[in-house]
Model the fold of this input.
Amino acid sequence: MPAAGEHHPAFEEYCECIYELREDDIDVIQARIAERLDVSRPAVSEMIKRLDVDGLVEVEAGRIRLTETGKALGERTVRRHRFAERFLTDVLHLSWAEAHHEAGRWEHVISESVETAMVELLGDPTTCPHGNPIPGSSYTAPDASSLSSVAIGESFVVSRITEELEFEPGLLEFLEHSNIQPGERGTVVAASPDGTVTVTMGERPVGVGAFASERILVTS
Done:
């Protein structure tokens, strides 16, 4: 059972999901939550009712938003998830996909003292391995745009793999294997009518589909 002042992991997971959907500028409706968490819409409907009763969300015209209490819970869970990902990749050298999966468990059990120790060990990072900001850090958003907006022949530096892409099966493995990671420089060499962008990361050409290229943020 959760300790006094804490919430059930399911509540944390839903507040985290709502927080991250808004972070990616996605309208938060029950269908989007069901897709993100891979659960049925009736299950989402029942949980949203429980969150509403608990004062964590408000629902208006089908749109769901976190209350101040819900936002605080969502931020805390996201923060611990992203710190866990940093630890799992930077210290234990797990792959992006493994770290994302494991951090989904760790986020519910990391205490304040463990979080403080992780911050010190990791050097107080401002982003997760994919470039998404850690809430409460000194993160400053760069002037970034989508990879899909980069003209053929122009170079770019990967800034952020938005959270939405972390839930696409196999995509984290593909991006990590292709070296499409924050801080890495590439060049757009071709673009197809279907929205696929071909880039070179080093010497190797890589095709990035429209869904991903619209959600990978880069700087010049």
Q: What stands out?
A: The chain is about 40% helix and 15% strand. The two ends are 49 Å apart (CA to CA).
